[in-house]
Write a structure and sequence with these properties.
heterodimer; A: 202 residues; mainly alpha; 8 helices; 57% helix; B: mainly alpha; 12 helices; 0% strand
């Protein structure tokens, strides 16, 4: 038996906000703001891995003893010691990459430095050089070290660094338009990095 | 590849040294604080036209105090007091002391940062990071530049030095205020409509306004207009389990393919119908 289809009301088209004079709200409010901060590119991610891999290899292998000695020497102001080592290593790697024909994005350097500082803090902790045990305090010391790393990087110089880049990034931060995590990712901060708890294998 | 080598090296070191702990990495906030430091120092460097270390402490304080004195000027205009009344800014520490005297409050950075003729780099960096950690990088910069109360977007705009960018920022701020107004207006209108609807519901009988009975008098939101379940939904509900074949789960394309293969009718008799084809006997037997 043929079944008559049920009558249904027509779909209501999506609404459009209109002002009293009939002007569409889009015209009053203007276009949506353009996203001024692009996401980190795959190329930049590759550069983070490349530079960071080299530095971390050095820290945990051939450079370990030298780094421990430098950290012991700078024990009175450990953040400064960690920052100077980190700034120097990042600068060296960036310059080496430039000479090798790879132009590294300067946006990612603070993220790389953050990872390097963290590795140095672990070394300092392992060797009993870092006396701070509070997690918050350890974070603050690493934050200070990061600023010392920036200073050291500038001191060593980088012909490829455009002053407009850090200024632009600072503006983005001050305008508070983007979530911290997004800005941090753009700066090369790694998330969900694999960790080996308690130094144990699998 | 590097990270693999690193992990192995890390594990070997840790096992060898009997290490038990992993130091937690500095979070995004501190990363942003470092970037803000770098940007402010680069700004200070560009003001001074210096060719040395772009990220030096001197350039940072120069950039921060420039931002601070600019805000002082702006706020002075807003509140009708001249910024020059307080005297020219003589540097970060001096204006910070004035700022503390004028605007002391819990949001300010600690007084320990102010030391004699200026901030030492070490205590300055410690204070900046502490403030960023406990509050935000922007507040740390504001604290360093000794001024509070100005909008962060205003601080951000200070680095836009070209008139075009300044005009664009002003236009953006205007549009934002307009947008806020429009949103508030739309919200108020929505609240009014809702209140009106509630009133109508409470003062009608069975959805009809007093004295009216035709469907056209029903409020738009009356249950009368609500769409009920479809026939197929009703049939589906009424279908008894275990009796006969359950509804097929075959998708539309499968159904269509089967239909094409078999022709328009399951009995191989098409559209016109048995009567339309003349005698029923011949077709049935063909």
């Amino acid at each position: 038996m043929a079944v008559k289809s049920v009558a249904r009301p027509m779909d209501i088209p999506p609404g459009r906000m209109v002002g009293e004079d009939g002007t569409a709200m889009e015209d009053v409010m203007g276009p949506e703001p353009v996203d001024e901060m692009p996401e980190i590119t795959p190329e930049e991610e590759g550069q983070v891995d490349m530079i960071l891999g080299q530095i971390l290899d050095f820290i945990w292998d051939s450079g370990y003893e030298t780094i421990v000695k430098k950290l012991r020497d700078g024990q009175s102001n450990l953040p400064e010691a960690m920052g100077h080592i980190a700034g120097q290593m990042v600068n060296r790697e960036v310059q080496a990459a430039s000479k090798g024909g790879v132009e590294v994005s300067r946006d990612i350097l603070i993220g790389i430095a953050n990872e390097v500082v963290n590795a140095l803090a672990e070394v300092a902790d392992h060797e009993g050089i870092m006396k701070t045990k509070s997690e918050d305090q350890q974070q603050k010391e690493q934050g200070e070290a990061l600023i010392y790393a920036v200073q050291k990087y500038g001191e060593l110089g980088d012909p490829g660094l455009d002053p407009q880049q850090p200024m632009q990034m600072a503006q983005n931060i001050l305008r508070d338009k983007y979530p911290e995590e997004r800005v941090a990712r753009k700066m090369g901060m790694r998330v969900n990095e694999e960790e080996v708890p308690n130094g144990e294998l699998g | 590849m590097g990270s693999v080598v690193k992990s192995i090296g890390k594990v070997v070191r840790k096992v060898g040294k009997g290490v038990k702990k992993i130091v937690k990495k500095a979070g995004p906030t501190l990363l942003l604080a470092a970037a803000l430091y770098a940007g402010t120092a680069a700004f200070g460097s560009s003001l001074a036209g210096s060719t040395g270390n772009m990220f030096s402490w001197g350039n940072f304080t120069s950039g921060a105090s420039q931002i601070g004195s600019s805000i002082t000027g702006g706020m002075g205009k807003i509140f009708g007091t001249s910024a020059t009344k307080a005297g020219p800014t003589t540097g970060l520490a001096g204006s910070f002391v004035k700022g503390v005297d004028r605007m002391s409050g819990p949001e300010l950075m600690g007084r320990e940062l102010v030391g004699g003729a200026g901030l030492s780099p070490q205590s300055g960096i410690t204070g900046f990071v502490s403030k960023a950690f406990s509050d935000s990088p922007a507040m740390a910069l504001l604290g360093t530049s000794q001024l509070l109360g100005a909008g962060l977007s205003f601080v951000g705009n200070l680095m836009d030095k070209t008139p075009e960018l300044e005009a664009a920022a002003a236009e953006k701020a205007f549009k934002e205020s307009q947008r806020q107004f429009d949103l508030e207006y739309a919200l108020a209108q929505q609240q009014f409509e809702e209140a009106k609807h509630q009133f109508e519901v409470q003062h009608t009988f069975a959805g009809f306004k007093p004295g009216t009975t035709s469907p056209s008098d029903l409020p738009k939101t009356s249950n009368f207009w609500r769409q009920g379940p479809t026939l197929s939904q009703v049939l589906g509900v009424r279908q008894e389990p275990g009796l006969g074949r359950q509804p097929s789960q075959a998708n539309a394309s499968q159904l269509q393919a089967v239909a094409q293969a078999r022709g328009p009718s399951m009995l191989n008799r098409s559209g016109p119908g048995l009567i339309g084809m003349g005698t029923t006997d011949t077709t049935r037997l063909s």
